[in-house]
Amino acid sequence: MKIFKFGGASTKDAESVKNVVSVITKTAEKDLVIVVSAMGKTTNALEEVLKDYFSEDGNLKHSLQFVYDYHHNILNGLFSSPQHPAFENLNRIFKELERFLETNKSKNHAFVYDQVVSFGELISSTIIAAYFEENGINNTWLDVRQCIKTDANYRDANVDWEKTQQTISDKVSLKGITVTQGFLGSENTNNFTTTLGREGSDYTAAIFAYCLNAESVTIWKDVPGVLNADPRYFTETQLFNHISYREAIELAFYGASVIHPKTLQPMQRKEIPLYVKSFLNPTAPGTCVGKGVLLDPMTSCFILKKNQVLISLSSLDFSFMMEDHIGDVFKWLHKFKMKVELIQNSAISFSVCVDNKFNNLEPLLAKLREKFSVKWNENVTLYTIRHFNPAEVKALAENKNVLLKQESKETVQLIIKE
């Protein structure tokens, strides 16, 4: 049994879905769990649906129609007859979404978010399962919410591993092909849909691999494997043939976008290899993450995170920033769901770079001002270089406004105001 995961870029249109069939055919794997994300930018489109739903000025009908038309066009490109059951399934799922929006009474944005954006994966997996059948690939469609059980921490749910192990063991066959959704789970008490965080489909693949003792996981991407830098921002990138679990976890922690930060821990615990391969060239070896050499080839790794916030604090009475002060800061960072990317402190100051992904900056700053003098910079960029050399750091910082620099033996980080 192997696990394949296909992201939104690999299923963004009809031709891409056809290519997924080609990948399955070329790899000739017979026993698979195939985890799929929402198609293309569907999650973003469903976030627009949410924005319109909660806004008095929003055009909910228009944003819903956009999502429907996008998937309907993909169906037109895959199936010759509009009478194919896939069209009826799309209508059925879309009616469920509309029914939820009409009847929902909750004002909890995170709860509503998970109920709405989950329809992206439900639609994509249904379309792909139907197209597989159309092309002679027998498969079983599985609602992942019956398998991955979580707490009620909506938008970033924590997996209940004991219950998840039991449900996956009960519901997933080790033979044949199963098509299911990434990113989703359901909370234990009321079975409401939860999500595992953005890009959580990689994590879903790892959960299935761990619970099924899979032979391997392959993540199919639009890149040849794991590169030492994002080619959108850096030139002359290098492909890694192999990365150790430890190094991959470090890269994920610092924000490397190819592998989800949560994905690697369950893989490492059972020493299941993770492959990152190109869906455009499925026979190429790609990158293997597993036991063995740290990096092959050994070279510097460049990681870039945009749209970060640098917050600088000092005590109001110029007293030392001691453990009790810093403890309060981290308590509030946790309360307002700020992901900490970097910290630096001195006797009377404390700086922290955070990812404001839940848009809670204003209430956090208000709370911090009660106890500290607060300065902040929004829209800063955090650069991280693993296994750096001084010339690379100098070149990166040249002619840039460096707000903060932090260096250790293996890693240097720069916060730059572009």
Summarize the structure.
This protein has 418 residues and is α/β, with parallel strands linked by helices. 38% of the residues lie in helices and 25% in strands.
Verbal overview:
- The chain is globular, with a radius of gyration of 23 Å.
- With 418 residues, the protein is an alpha/beta fold.
- The protein folds into 2 domains: 2-215, 3-Layer(aba) Sandwich (Carbamate kinase); 301-417, VC0802-like (2-Layer Sandwich).
- Strand 1, helix 1 (14-27) and strand 2 form a beta-alpha-beta unit.
- The strands form 3 sheets. It has a 9-stranded mixed β-sheet with strand order 3-5-2-1-8-10-11-9-12, with helices on both faces.
- The longest helix is centred in the first third of the chain and has 26 residues, at 109-134.
- The protein is 38% helix and 25% strand.
- It contains 12 helices and 18 strands.
Q: State the helix count.
A: 12
* Neighbour order of strands in the largest sheet: 3-5-2-1-8-10-11-9-12
- Write down the overall geometry: globular
Total domains, how many? Answer: 2
- Largest beta-sheet details: 9 strands, mixed
- Mean pLDDT, all residues: 95
Helical residues, percent = 25-40%
Q: Terminal Cα separation, in Å?
A: 47 Å
**From N to C, what is the helix and strand string?**
EHEHHHHEEHEEEHEEHHEEEEHEEHEHEE
Going by CATH, the architecture of the largest domain would be 3-Layer(aba) Sandwich
Task: Give the low-pLDDT segments.
Answer: none
